[in-house]
């Protein structure tokens, strides 16, 4: 595997291998010294054109735990603000000897272009409304850790699917790993052509009793140019996950959210902080999964 650009590029065997390696990487966090020498001498660049907390810090922690040198690049305060193109930035990174570039970019497809311009590995940390493959992998890892399996589970993804790169990556990966996926939300926010094998519903209360996993999505107001629902209050009434709806779910079912959360809108504090929530676990698991991805891409002989 040279790059990680899309979950569509992962077959079941490769995805499972990443999850298995992540399980081994998770054991490192329990050690007194939380480091492995695997990527010593390698350079990982975090190239972020959009603000990020969890993903950037997670990738930085993952690279450092594998003993790689890490360079954090933010578009703010860089030559990008002076008009430098992605291609010129890529050539700069190439000249500096970057072994891997982790990129988050507002334009869908930017990581694919970058992969044509650098000789190192490229990891997609989110491109526009397209994909976010490592988030889907950490979500799958979390589901498997909590539920013991992924194959045969019913995963319900709720909310702003239209603007969600997390939803797109999860739909592709979860289908590959044998899960049944149902998308739920307002008709204006749920595209019906995302995947032929995915079911679409608009009544959350009707779907919850059959769900094993409920994944709530953030309403991405910053990407909306039109009015997709009447009001935040109306959205929360129809598609927000509160205590009453949590009790409609099977006793074994879990709740997920990729973050950041709009507490009180798509999810209430009662649910977000409940024992059935995996939100904090997802953040923890993100480091292990990203360690596994970097290991697979860079861990071979130089």
TrEMBL record:
Keyword Transferase: yes
Record: residues binding L-aspartate: 82, 165, 218
Biological role stated in the UniProt entry: Catalyzes the condensation of carbamoyl phosphate and aspartate to form carbamoyl aspartate and inorganic phosphate, the committed step in the de novo pyrimidine nucleotide biosynthesis pathway.
Gene Ontology molecular function: any one: aspartate carbamoyltransferase activity
Enzyme Commission identifier(s): 2.1.3.2
Catalytic activity: carbamoyl phosphate + L-aspartate = N-carbamoyl-L-aspartate + phosphate + H(+)
Keyword line: Pyrimidine biosynthesis, Transferase
A GO term from the CC aspect: cytosol
Pfam families, A to Z: OTCace, OTCace_N
Designated name of the protein: Aspartate carbamoyltransferase
Metabolic or biological pathway, per its Swiss-Prot or TrEMBL entry: Pyrimidine metabolism; UMP biosynthesis via de novo pathway; (S)-dihydroorotate from bicarbonate: step 2/3
Subunit structure, interactors included: Heterododecamer (2C3:3R2) of six catalytic PyrB chains organized as two trimers (C3), and six regulatory PyrI chains organized as three dimers (R2).
Source organism: Catellatospora methionotrophica
Lineage: Bacteria, Bacillati, Actinomycetota, Actinomycetes, Micromonosporales
Positions of carbamoyl phosphate binding: 54-55, 104, 132, 135, 259-260
Family affiliation: Belongs to the aspartate/ornithine carbamoyltransferase superfamily. ATCase family.
Residue intervals of the Aspartate/ornithine carbamoyltransferase Asp/Orn-binding domain: 151-297
Biological process (GO), any one: 'de novo' UMP biosynthetic process
All residue ranges annotated as the Aspartate/ornithine carbamoyltransferase carbamoyl-P binding domain in the record: 2-144
Record InterPro entries: Asp/Orn_carbamoyltranf_P-bd (IPR006132), Asp/Orn_carbamoylTrfase (IPR006130), Asp/Orn_carbamoylTrfase_sf (IPR036901), Asp_carbamoyltransf (IPR002082), Asp_carbamoyltransf_Asp/Orn-bd (IPR006131)
